[in-house]
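3.2 Worked example (two chains)
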Amino acid sequence: MKDFEPSLQPRSRTSQRRWRLSGAAHYLWSFKLTPGGHVLVGAILLTALGSVTTQMPIYLLFAALLALLGVSELTGLVFKPVLSVEGQAPVQASAGQPVTTHLTLTNHSRWRPALDVMLCLFGLPRGIKHLNADASVVCLRAGATAALPVTLRADQRGIYPLPPVRAVSTFPFNLVRVGGGRTAPGRLVVLPAFHSLEELDIPVSHRYQPRGITLTRGVGHSLEFVGNREYVPGEPARWIDAKAWGRIGKPVVKEFHDEYVCRIALILDTHVPSRWVRRSQDRRRLEAAVSLMAAISEQLNFHEHVIDLFAAGPELYVFRTLGGTTHFENVLEILAGVDACHRHPFEQISPLVIEELETISTAVCVFIDWDPLRQEFCRRLQEAGCVLKGVLVRDDPAATGEPPPVDQGGGWTVVTTTHIEQGRLLRL
């Protein structure tokens, strides 16, 4: 091993040097130079051909353009603003919809104004656009404050890390940027876009819940009165029966019984085979299934049910809501982070769901394909006494000609991606 160490060391240093050079070049081209600066640098490179000899007049143009770039950088450094940025970039948005927030700029210089100040995000993730990157403050006097909007738009759902929002100045010629302040990094949760359902027909039933009262306490359920018993120190005072206490002369409490709760499991199929053929169609069906699950969750948000969301992607997501207090925003955040799973997800979902089968009343399954594993999974749900509501998302039948699945009992609906994307699916 010692004989190879000298040869490996120079390679490591060379790779680090190349990485630093590529990072510096990316910084200079993407952040330091404005679009006008890109044009100027391109013109400098073209006119650099004339610098090989003084016999060609073009070298004068090369020297003038290079001097212009140098003057812009030196002037920017001399008038570099002393700014602070207060606020935070947008933290939540819907796919395809712009979201705007306002940040406050403060010039902390005692005498020097900040000129041509704007906000920028260097290193935005792919798929996110800064729509108003050209919004600017022409002159911010010393000690003054101003508000600038930041509008972002993401085309696809997901959870994206956001770089710091930087306050920069492009004075004097709008060719280079000079930094003057920044915020802390953040993240943008892009919720899935969906069209609301007008009607959702899900068969519900009540099953015994060992923790039924705990799951539904304080959310509007009417508990059934079953009798009185002696008061145990530490119990809530609101359970005391004053009339019975007056009759028998010792404290007693009311005893209620409500262990039967409607519990619904939402099961999302995220299996996209790792194949090159029809990859875009598979991804499109997955996005349609996520949108449909969001619409179903919105409808269930208005009912007092206990909801379990199972979504298997690269990670297994399990989320439980309390009856009557369904955290719809939390469900959307989970759906925003769900990604395609190239391994069959029911190998992960099945053990967790099967453990809960004795207490689950209804299972709503949104599938993007049909095969024996999914068929076996549905059979085990029904054998456990769950009422099954199945939805199969298919491509347009005219384009694929794929048949619907074999009816496994319960309510099955076959929908197309086009109907979901265009909001033509109103009832389910």
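3.2.1 Second chain
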Amino acid sequence: MHAAQVYLHQNNAGLSRHAGILREVLVDAGFQVAHEGIPVRRRGERYRARVRSWLPRQQRTRLNVFVESLVPAAFHTARRSAFMPMQEWFEPTDWPLLPLVDVILCNSREAARLFADCGAEVHWTGFTSVDRLDPTWDGPQEGILHVAGRSEFKGTAALIACWRRHPEWPMLTVVGRSEMIPGDLPANVTAHRGLLTDEALRALQNDAWLHLQPSEAEGFGHCIVEALSVGGVVISTDAPPMTEVVTPATGFLVPWTHSSPMGVGTRYFVDVDALEATIQLVLESGKDGQAARRQAARQWFVDNDRRFRRDTAQLLHSL
């Protein structure tokens, strides 16, 4: 069994989800993951000194996998290297480093398009998320949920603006860091500020039939894909890469009004009026009126999870 090293920033959010899933896929590909969770997002001399002090103690591995950020000081520690970029966080100054990587593994087709001419071999792999479905759940499944997590790019303010216009709408539950949620909320919005236990979050996800995730930017979209895993109807932004995981068969896509550059990707701002109209339409149809989409959402998750794990394990094994 060959050793592999994963470099990423453990953030107790999407990248931590990435770490666990990537470890499983690497093991399926025949690798032993020696280390993971190296903090690579930090810059400056303190970070560089930490990397230098860490590297000499490591044995040379067969494969390095860099997620989101490259660590040039570690290039010599493995025979082969793979990079899994997040376009919204990729620093353009690192572009000249890409030809030094053996293969680019893209979580989205949008990333594959953006990195197509980077000078390295590029593969679209997609990705998957943790299956959040609780088959024993016997709750009412009447909830409406928005998971902002640690991110300021989930469209939280737009959703709360919609609920402020409609005091007659049912309760919206928002989960996220305190600074992501305004202090003055409408009466029909309840907030869980800070981090919930995984058990508590999973309960909210299984109890919700409608999941509102009008993201402005995503590297993959764990919050969206987890919603699909529980058979949730998802409302998201009609822009890449959100459009790769939400389709008219599984949810609803809302147009955006303007955008701005973010890394080598783009940040999209949802049309609040269109978001309001879409939510109203879905609420009027009700949970029972969305049964086909809920079933399709769960099936998409199952099919995508199986394909990603199989194909990516084969690709990594070939390295």
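3.3 Remarks
Residues 40-50 have pLDDT under 50 and may be disordered.
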